Amino acid sequence: VQEKPYECTKCGKGFKGNSRLMKHLQTHTKQKTFECTDCGKSFSRKGNLVVHQRIHTGERPYKCKECGKTF
Question: Taking every annotated instance into account, which residue ranges of this chain make up the domain C2H2-type (predicted)?
Answer without folding.
Answer: 6-33, 34-61, 62-71
